[in-house]
Design a protein that fits this description.
The complex is a heterodimer of chains A (about 325) and B (about 500).
Chain A: H1 2-19, E1 32-36, H2 43-59, E2 63-67, H3 74-81, E3 89-94, H4 95-104, E4 116-125, E5 127-131, H5 140-149, E6 155-158, H6 164-176, E7 181-184, H7 188-196, E8 202-206, H8 207-215, E9 220-224, H9 239-242, E10 250-257, H10 262-277, H11 279-284, E11 290-292, H12 300-320
Parallel strand pairs in A: 1-2, 1-3, 6-7, 6-8
Antiparallel strand pairs in A: 3-10, 4-10, 4-11, 5-8, 5-9
Helix pairs in contact in A: 2-10, 4-12
Chain B: H1 2-15, H2 18-36, H3 42-49, H4 58-83, H5 92-103, H6 107-141, H7 145-162, H8 167-181, E1 184-185, E2 192-193, H9 207-225, H10 229-235, H11 244-266, H12 275-286, H13 299-314, H14 316-322, H15 328-339, H16 347-351, H17 353-384, H18 389-408, H19 411-429, H20 434-457, H21 464-467, H22 469-499
Antiparallel strand pairs in B: 1-2
Helix pairs in contact in B: 1-17, 2-4, 2-17, 3-4, 4-5, 4-6, 4-13, 4-15, 4-17, 5-6, 5-13, 6-11, 6-13, 6-14, 6-17, 7-8, 7-12, 7-20, 7-22, 8-20, 9-18, 9-19, 9-20, 11-12, 11-13, 12-13, 18-19
Chain lengths: ~325, ~500
Amino acid sequence: MLILSRRMALAGLGALVACGPAAAADWPQKPVTVIVPQAAGNSPDVLCRIITDKLSRALGQQFVVDNRPGAANVVGMQSAARAANDGYTFVFATSAALVTNPYTIKNLSYDPLKDFVPVAMVAKSHHLLLVNPNVKANSLAELIALEKEKPGSLSVAVDGPRNISGLIAQAINKQAGTKMVLVPYNTISNAVQDSISGRTPVTIQSASVVEPFIKDGSLRAIAVAGNERISTHPDVPAIAEMLKSVELQGWFMVMAPVGTPADILDRMSKAIAAAIAEPDVKERAPGLGFELAKGEPISPSGAKAFLDAQYAYTGTVIKSLGIEPN
Amino acid sequence: MDTLISNLSLGFSVALGLQNLGLAFVGCMVGTLIGVLPGVGPVATIAMLLPVTFSLDPVGALIMLAGIYYGAQYGGSTTAILVNIPGEATSVVTALDGHAMARRGRAGAALGIAAIGSFFAGTVATMLIAALGAPLTKAALLFGPTEYFSLMVMGLIFAVVLAGGSILKALAMIMLGLLLSTVGTDLETGDQRMTFGQPFLWDGIDFAVLAMGVFGIAEILRNLGQPEDRDLVRGTIGRLLPSQAEMRQSLAPILRGTLLGSAFGILPGNGAVLAPFASYAVEKKLAADPSRFGKGAIEAVAGPESANNAGAQTSFIPLLTLGIPANAVMALMVGAMTIQGIIPGPQVMTGNPSLFWGMIASMWIGNLMLLVINLPLVGVWVKLLQVPYRLLFPVILLFCCIGIYSINGQVTDVLFIGLFGLAGFILIRCGFEPAPMLLGFVLGKLMEENLRRALILSRGSLTTFVTEPISAGLLAVSSILLVAAIVPNIRRGREEAFAE
């Protein structure tokens, strides 16, 4: 509460500053920090570095990536929430930090909706449902049928019960009435390895990680998380095509501490839009497992609408799975 | 064989290019210098320098990162030997006898044999990767949660052997290490365990924080407690390089260490961490006079250092051939490759042969450079020991604080090294050795995760550990080792009891 009230006070202060002479005209005057709540080399970090490289060139100041990993994004989000709202700190937030943590973590030390303002949606990150080639199922429907023949026989490798792929697996179990057993892995590589060797015949992984294994036939993609097919695998159906209420997916959004002057947010979001429209970014993104944002969500208001909808939706799903914050 | 030679010549033609040669040198140099700073191990070093590589071409970037990796690994051993601060789990073992040698005035010999052993191990491991990389990959896939659990059990037995003194005290320290490793988020339920609601504990205690505290800070406290010690360390420097007798003594341990390290390194899931511990245990078992271990036996530096470097090298196999990173450093390399637009995996070898073989060739070149960089530096490092402690200690403390802060950017980490330092000092004073605790800590996490995964996969049946052949074999070896380690102690204990 204390943090919240201080944040409110800062918000008021920020609003006052914003009323002053146009802040955005001479922004940025010094290097801008972009906090990534995950470790260097992780998927959000890779994307953030591609974008900040473009921003540095376009806006004439260095955009510095500050990796603050730890405690399921909480460390990074917390430091971003407490940063000055002068337009020199942004955070490259993950969907886990913004819409999952509020429902899975008790006494979360930041409030995604009150401590931050959205700047721009950047990209969705695709998760694929994959099976070992020896599994006799070529579609989600066949997999569900296979599991129902012998309930509880299939193991699915996931990242944890409260993380995105674990939540997707539980949502599938709930909607389809299957009893796949979740096997948690905190390193992606071990999960992939055990699925390749067939110990965990099913897995849900970020598309960027498993692409090479799909290519060489050691894993077979049978569904894409979310409600749309993706350009790299146009013949793989989306999970929501069969199970209507399983639309969970990962995404990244640039946010700023609440009270950051609105015209700076505006300039930043326009610069991000320009960055993700550059041909080389567009060309590389699909291979890295990202689908870049398009149109309205790459603006403060559009991003807010997307965030609010996702916040509500994820809450409904997590509560329906019987997961309590702890 | 012909293809191997043509592949290697392709690799060397890439790696010997002027730019790549320069990058390998810069990487090794920077890695060594940063690695020497207490607490800044390879992971932190590569994470910090990752952005520098973005503007390079992919082969050059990876060659430089790999150089930083070996360099930091080597630099970390230097710190372990000189000031008893292991930055990585793998240099804990080096600190044991390496620092004991330094205290006896043989720091130069310890550093020299570490460099020579590492170079030899690196050369063998590089050849191994080139010749057997692809087929060995299949072996790695044989290891699942069940096998890993049994492997870690075997690792714990090494911890018993590591202990110089009482077996009971060693067991107590292993248990303490296991307990400390359970702090953090429960993998299966996502619940917080012993975190007291503090986010900095959610991911558990950081290894570097614990190691720096119980080794580094505790060592400083201990030295301050007995001022007479310091003249001993500074008084005699001795010859800088190992003598011929020492080289002869180290030859077999280097060979055995290389073998062990190469084998453990191939296992994904950070099997390499066990290699130096295994080598130490083997050398101690084979030694004519095991009582020298812990007091500065050169075999106990030569073997584990070779094992460490061989493991570091062969842990590239799962990355390059399967696209599966074996440890945190390799995961960072995956990130670096991804940023460069290369998705690591089996097709790198066929689709991008100049990158694949160029990197392998650069590994050997990097090892050679490390030898060239480090042998002359031995003299410089040893001189550091002559700096009066009243100057040296504050500097070490300062670097420890900066180093640990640079890893996660958390003030709590800095406070914790102080806390662990005090705890470590009390433990040393009471005759408890910290090394078994650290091994227990490192293995505890892996053991718990794999035990629980294995039990989920077997749907709760414990028999999985004896019905899976590899697991059963590992457990059998463990029980033999345990008996071999404990029986002489019990007997000795009885004899002592009778003697009274």
